[in-house]
Amino acid sequence: MKLFDPTPDKDTIMYAKGLKMWFPLRRGITDIIKRRPRLYVHAVDGIDFKIQEGDVFGFAGESGCGKTTTGKAVIRLYDPTGGVVGYKPRKKLLEEWSSMGYEPPMDEHGYVDLAKIPRKYTRPLRKELQMIFQDPYGTLNPRFTIFEILEEPLLIHGIGETREEREDIVAKALEAVKLVPPEEFMYRYPHMLSGGQRQRVVIARAMILNPRFIVADEPVSMLDVSIRAEILELLLDLKRQFKLTYIFITHDLAVARYITNKIAIMYLGKIVELGETRRVLENPLHPYTKALIAAIPEPDPRNRLRLRDIPIKGEVPSAVFVPPGCRFHPRCVALDQNPQLKPSCTQKEPPLIEVEPNHYVACWLYAKK
Ligand SMILES: Nc1ncnc2c1ncn2[C@@H]1O[C@H](COP(=O)(O)OP(=O)(O)OP(=O)(O)O)[C@@H](O)[C@H]1O
Ligand code: SF4
Ligand SMILES: [Mg+2]
Question: What is the dihedral of CA 154, 156, 161, 165, to 10 degrees?
Answer without folding.
Answer: 10
